[in-house]
């Protein structure tokens, strides 16, 4: 895909302190006209604030977060992008990133392009999109938490983390907890090459709606994984769980 780097941000930057940490509030951000053809690139490494809050309006194709290590990013705004594949992209390798939403509606998913260490994604209310959370590059990851998010009307996988074939790059420790899924075209959750993975307390209602072979499960564990499943509620879905060349332990609800 071709991403355009020329953009214009209209920003209001009130800086305040919370304890010793600075907080940057961004109350309006938009790509230059025509908005539906522009990505917004925001280099968080240039900001001294440890916490960044988006609390205004969003207009554009997608938001690309660069150099986002050691940041707490909060979206307190409705996000409606013209790219239903990725509304938000985490670009490059990151560590110690908290990505959080207050639950206002978002169209389009979250794409993770690089390696990650200590990443959490929580509180998002994704109401339409091609994917929900999407990280399928051949990259290594450590300490991933995806919890308390809502995914509805997703065309393909709602959470797709890891490569579909066994590779040397692994995810060491991923927790997928307390998420809700409704009307998912393919699998609600699909992970691969994930060691010490935990998937629990999720509610899945109507997954695999496109009835495509191999993509019509509530949960798929791809090769190279070791996964623990428990207390997941799966409703109105023909196929529950498939485990491919992996080790899985499940306690059914």
Question: What's this entry about, in short?
Answer:
It contains no helices and 27 strands.
Tell me what the structure shows.
By secondary structure, the protein is an all-beta fold. Helix content is 0%, strand content 55%. It has strands at residues 15-18, 21-30, 39-43, 51-59, 62-66, 71-75, 79-80, 86-91, 94-101, 105-107, 109-112, 116-122, 125-128, 133-135, 141-147, 150-154, 159-161, 171-177, 180-184, 189-191, 194-200, 203-205, 217-221, 226-230, 233-235, 239-243, 247-251. The chain has an 11-stranded mixed β-sheet with strand order 1-2-4-6-9-12-15-18-21-24-27, with no helix packed on it. The termini are far apart. The model is unreliable at 1-20 (pLDDT under 50).
Strand content: over 45%
Spans with pLDDT under 50 lasting ≥5 residues?
A: 1-20
Rounded Rg = 18 Å
Ends apart, CA distance between termini:
42 Å
The neighbouring-strand order within the major sheet is 1-2-4-6-9-12-15-18-21-24-27
What structural category characterises the helix and strand content? mainly beta
Helix percentage range: under 10%
Mean pLDDT score: 87
Tally of DSSP β-strands: 27
Q: Could you spell the SSE succession in H and E letters?
A: EEEEEEEEEEEEEEEEEEEEEEEEEEE
Let me know the largest β-sheet: 11 strands, mixed
| Number of helices in the DSSP assignment | 0
Instruction: Identify the overall geometry.
Output: globular
